[in-house]
Design brief:
The complex is a heterodimer of chains A (279) and B (167). Chain A has 279 residues and is of the alpha+beta class. Chain A contains two helices and twelve strands; from the N terminus they run ααββββββββββββ. The radius of gyration of chain A is 24 Å and the shape is globular. The chains are: A alpha+beta (279), B mainly alpha (167). Chains A and B meet through α1 and α2 of A and α1, α2, α4, α5 and α6 of B.
Chain lengths: 279, 167
């Protein structure tokens, strides 16, 4: 009796492992719109309302606690902001004059003026449910014209890209996800490399030419190579450069332009062709 | 109600909890694995085969939540469910702390397996950083939640089997 049960148990365990391995293989070979991919979209659509509700319930408490913590520094910050505002107003006036002059010169030279990119505003309703990936769920989807592979930005810079979209929600893979990568160029020199996510929350600049001129504090912008991200979006700033003993490649840490832990409102760029000089 | 149906309902609730609540209660990179708690508890209470089958279903649900594609979590949770079933409740006894330690232990095993399998699928990961910043804090968090949840799960998932004799 014991041996028959034991044999049956082993068979069930064996079948479970084989099924797991087959499913894995199926997915790695599977089409993007296959059955499993559609199941994932279905579950995203099913969980999004719960995520939205949980976010709506906890949102006010989170905001109150943030305001309470900040109240001491608000007066000081307000004084700084007033001073900055004055300086910025003067700068805006100057830039407006330059813009008018620039437009006039472009007309003279026969250039076509770059249009503003089309963007869709969205709110983050949930974050990654596991520790091993860096994603957020946003509250707009295909009903707002969003599709997979669109760049996601804030006023500070690049956030990531949409990877799965259902009618009223979408998953965004953040730049600090270990599997994300984006082609960048150093604003100062134009040298190109690739930004990859890492465990620590910082980004890594890789595949930079060995003799490339790079310094701490260099600004990095998307290069537009690869076609996913439009050219010219701020990605981050070089924070640390270390030479490793056994590698030709420098180990370059990049501090991201966007604080991924505090994302609340974002913009999805649904116009891949437009340059994003203004973001 | 049949224990398997109860398990399925608990697993479904855990899935929605993992999707909607866990992101709100995460501390840095540390996120509790609610599905792991359910799968491991089912294994502890009902044995290796129900644990492995439960792990398969739990892993499938967790994989459907991710952008990685399906497979890694299925394999991991199936192993964890089967492994937990080997521990069974004879070892856990009536102690309140033992289930917590066991859940913390299987959480560490589960995450180490993830790192290993992710490496095989081409993901680069700094092992020490991963252990320090993700594996240990997440295991601790999962164990802590397991401490409060396991007694309830024990009642829900094993009521029919109280007459089971362990020798």
């Amino acid at each position: 009796m014991y041996s028959r049960n034991s044999g049956r148990n082993r068979t069930i365990l064996f079948v479970a492992f084989i099924a797991a391995a087959l499913l894995t293989a199926l997915v790695y070979r599977g089409a993007r719109d296959g059955l499993l991919s559609r199941s994932q979209s279905l579950l995203l659509a099913a969980t999004a309302p719960f995520q939205k509700a949980a976010n709506a319930v906890t949102g006010p408490f989170k905001r109150v606690s943030q305001y309470t913590l900040l109240i001491g520094s608000l007066t000081e910050e307000n004084r700084h902001l007033k001073r900055d505002n004055l300086a910025l107003r003067q700068r805006v006036g100057r830039l407006k004059r330059y813009e008018i002059e620039n437009r006039r010169l472009q007309r003279l030279a026969g250039f076509r003026r770059a249009s503003q990119p089309k963007t869709v505003g969205a709110r983050v309703i949930s974050r990654s449910p596991t520790s091993w990936q860096s994603i957020v769920t946003i509250d707009v989807g295909s009903n707002a014209g969003i599709s997979a592979g669109m760049a996601v930005v804030t006023d500070k810079g690049l956030v990531g890209r949409t990877v799965r979209v259902v009618r009223s929600a979408a998953l965004v893979q953040l730049l600090d996800d270990r599997r994300s990568g984006v082609g960048v160029e150093i604003a100062r020199t134009g040298a190109m490399g690739i930004i990859e996510g890492s465990m620590s929350g910082r980004l890594k600049l890789r595949f930079l030419a060995a003799d490339a001129d790079v310094k701490v504090g260099d600004k990095l912008l998307t290069s537009g190579v690869g076609g996913v991200y439009p050219k010219g979006i701020a990605v981050g700033t070089v924070a640390d450069i270390a030479k490793t003993a056994y590698s030709l490649e420098k180990n370059i840490d990049v501090s991201p332009a966007v604080d991924y832990a505090r994302l609340s409102e974002i913009l999805v760029v649904n116009d891949r062709e437009a340059p994003l000089d203004r973001l | 109600m049949n224990v398997n149906i109860r398990f399925a309902l608990v697993l479904l609730a855990a899935f929605f909890c993992q999707a909607a609540v866990v992101p709100l209660i995460s501390i840095g990179a540390a996120k509790p694995d609610i599905i792991l708690i359910i799968v491991a508890s089912f294994g502890f209470l009902d044995g290796a085969v129900p644990g492995a089958v439960g792990g398969f279903l739990g892993g499938l649900l967790l994989d459907l939540l991710t952008i990685r594609g399906i497979g890694l979590e299925i394999i991991i949770k199936t192993i964890i469910g089967g492994f937990s079933g080997r521990v069974e409740r004879t070892i856990l006894g009536n102690s309140a702390v033992m289930p917590m330690l066991a859940i913390g232990g299987v959480s560490i095993v589960s995450q180490i397996l993830y790192i290993g399998l992710a490496f095989l699928t081409g993901e680069r990961m700094a092992l020490l950083t991963a252990v320090r910043e993700v594996v240990l804090p997440s295991a601790l968090y999962t164990a802590l939640i397991g401490f409060f949840v396991f007694p309830h799960l024990s009642r829900i998932l094993s009521a029919e089997r109280q007459d089971k004799v362990f020798r």
